[in-house]
Amino acid sequence: MKTIWKLFVGDIRRITSNVVSIIIVIGLVVIPGIFTWFNVAASWDPFANTGNLKFAVANEDDGYRSDLIPVKINIGDQVVNTLRSNDQLDWTFTTKKEAINGTKSGEYYAAVVIPKNFSTRMMTFFASDGDHAEIAYYNNEKKNALAPKITGQGADTVSAQVNETFSETLTSTALSVASQLANQLDKPAAQEQLTQFNGNISDFAETLTDASGTLRTFSTLTQSARHLLESSDGLIANVSGNAKSAGTTLKQAGSGVEDLTGALKTGTTALGTALTDSANSFTAMEADVDSLFGNAGTQAGNTANALRNQATNISKQAQSYQQIYDSLDALSANEKLPEAVRNAIDHLKTNVGTTITQLNDLASALNGSADNIDAKVSDTTAERAEIKKLAQQAATSVSGIKTDYESQLKPQLDDIATSITSTTTALNATAADLKGALGNLNGTTKTADKNLTAISSVLDSTADSLAGAGKKLGAFTGTLTDALNSGDMSAVKDVLSDNTDSLAAALAAPVKVKRNAVFPVKNFGSQMAPFYTILPLWVGSLLMAVTLKTTVSRKVRKELGDPKPHQLFLGHYGVFGVIGLLQSTFSLGGSLLFLHVQAVHPLLFMLSGWVSSLVFSFFTYTLVASFGNVGKAIGVLFLVMQISGANGAYPLAVLPKIISGISPFLPATHSITAMRAAIGGIYSNDYWFAIGALLLFIPPLLLIGLLLRIPLVKFNHWYVSKLESTKVIAA
After folding, report:
1. Which of 11, 94, 226, 729 lies 20 to 30 A from 508 at CA?
2. Range of the domain at 104
3. Per-residue b/e over 607-625, b at no fewer than 16 CB within 10 Å?
4. How many domains does the chain have?
């Protein structure tokens, strides 16, 4: 230890013995800090200047004129006037050609073009065959790779910001126009148009209500299929033979369901599969009757219990079929269904009713046989034959129901499912105009799970949304109808023109998000500080390994009395460690004192830098001391991998799998994790786990430096001599 200390002190004295070496040391200490401060300051708040992004707007709207409206309306001009007062982006109003060419050239970040028929399309909202107004959106993704992420404070939120701004502007304009139209309402033609509009909305509300009821019927059918499956499986579980596997086919019935159509059609498929399972259960039971009664003489109690269990499961099946009957009855009550569908339902209801009677008779026969066995009745031949006959009849009836269902009713139900999906699609399509009143259906139509219970829940949830939407639309049409019937056009004006500005804002952004930051960081610069601090420290350690000698001269070794290799290795590292600590102190201290980078735990923030510098400097020192120039190349390779693989900028989840697999084996990964914990806050000792993981790199480095380095030195001498022999490549 004395020799190691003596070598370290000598190195410090020699490196500070002249001005040039002191300047080099100062450069090594300062460079990582400058790198860090420059990048942290540059990324401190990049979202404050999004208003400098140039956004072109080209208005080609020709306006709209009709017999109902004696004045020309140009909604495009109103949109432009509204945007002039908006400072979220640097709006530039120009022609279509200049807007598109400017976007291509990079003069504008993006552009929107309002088409010639924009006002006409907007006004067709009052027509029975109305269509959506559209604007063309152009964005230049070549100009800057990060621009779409920076502008709007998130991925693709530039588009969202533009859409919301335009949605609010367009909606406000449309409602303002509707308010202006109210001034023309005293004319008979206007009243006729409003009556037609009100009738269309009323029909749509009724369609939503009908769709809601049909969805609830589908949900009931799905639940009935689940109950039928459970009772069939229960019955099969009580019998013997390979029939026990017959009830497994429906377990994956809901897999892959991702939308409303999938949920509906999976429900109809599940019912068919459950019917097949039910028929199989009766066939299996029929085959097992002889075995059960054959054991009655020796195992009377077990046989009686088995018969009663079968009777219980058959009763459950009867209840499931009763639910199916009730669901079909509710579905056939819908007078809007085609006659062919109602006829198929009525035919199936008759067969289901017959099956219910047969199942109840079979359950009674099983319970009666169990009672006779308990009563020691010796001759059960007739009962056995009757039970087999009833089971065979039930299996035949259920198979017939399944055949009729698959061939006649299921295709019709699938068509109804497609029709309901079209209704919800239409409702979502008008959501840009009606979100505030109707809400958003996406949360319920895209969450179907992989089982029938979840599918039923999705159908019920969607039915609630449709019913609520229909109710709100119905209330609106009722109010408008009362106003029209009263003959008081001032009441109609109130309905159409009430608070257009606030309504427009609600329609453009119907949901407000309340953000609750977990481990909040006050600015983007502080969030990026770990990445821009740790990588420069690695660069600083590489610079040390390149600038400073990793070997000890013969003169120094002679002065120390020819110390052992491990003494030379550890003692000479001391100067690297000291410079590394100075680098991290200068860099991290400046970030806290001058840039005011956030740190919930300032001391731990500094500690993460100190530990990182020691590990990084020892890492590069060991590589270069053991492998020479090859070690320098390995250090650069680690730098390259850590730029993307250390979880400093992009989340590992969005990177290729090979990157996330390498990440735990990169020192910077754990340094960045520890520094983030010091900046935002520690959760469940994550800071100390990261520091521990970082220190785990020391043992293998000691193994290389103390044991493997000695034979590697001979290899390095050979490697250097070969390079020098080329007279071209410097060793």
Report:
1. 94
2. 47-184+488-508
3. bbbebbbbbbbbbbbbbbb
4. 3
Report if residue 7 sits inside a domain: yes
CA angle 374-377-383, nearest 5°? 95
Looking at the structure, tell me whether residues 451 and 588 fall in a common domain: no
Amino acid identity at 204: F
Per-residue pLDDT tens for 418-458?
655 554 454 444 434 333 333 443 433 333 334 455 555 65
Whether 66 and 179 share a structural domain: yes
DSSP annotation of 596 reads: -
Q: Which helix (H) or strand (E) holds 94?
A: strand 90-94
pTM over 0.90: no
Distances (CA, A) of 658 to 168, 636, 662, 690: 44, 19, 6, 21
CA 542 – CA 616 distance, rounded (Å): 9
Same domain for 173 and 249, yes or no, is no
Structure tokens at 50: 């999004």
Separation of alpha carbons 318 and 357, rounded Å: 8
Rounded to whole angstroms, the Cα distance separating 211 from 216 reads 9
Handedness of CA 647, 653, 657, 660 (dihedral sign): positive
Measure Cα distances from 325 to 348, 408, 455, 644, 650 in Å: 9, 16, 20, 61, 56
Tokens of 406: 């698959």
Same domain, 331 and 356: yes
- Same-domain check for residues 311 and 352: yes
CB environment 422-435: b (16+ within 10 A), e (fewer): ebbeebbeebebbb
Residue 32 lies inside a defined structural domain of this protein: yes
Same domain, 588 and 568: yes
Burial 225-237 (b: 16+ CB within 10 A, else e): bbbbbbbbbbbbe
